[in-house]
């Protein structure tokens, strides 16, 4: 009986890890599929006709949708990572749009997301930084203050 209980406890600790690995692998595979579809679209634009380009654009759109769905599933299954926590700012909430310009006190180093890979955010480009604004995440060009990308309701 004791061995059965120990075996059950071991299985209970291994199964969540396997589910996480499967979900992470799904997101990685979807991202790889998207890159492949984008390569095929570039080739169709170079060498194909309009019909080929239209089909490849549709395939890229479908691959992007699949990647979004896998990422949402990953996010739902790992709610603890995206928990909002006790986050306060010395300014009120603003609903920023892409192209908006922020003042430096909205995107200084205090609000940077130090580990964007933990949240599965794409790599920030040169002179760009992921910034937390209440439960939203903004990709900001730190030289100009322009918002490049917005993810609303990112944290729970």
From TrEMBL:
Region feature Disordered, mapped onto this chain: 40-59
Coiled-coil parts of chain: none
Record key words, sorted: Signal
InterPro entries tied to this protein: RcnB
Signal peptide location: 1-21
Protein name according to UniProt: Membrane protein
Lineage, highest ranks first: Bacteria, Pseudomonadati, Pseudomonadota, Alphaproteobacteria, Sphingomonadales
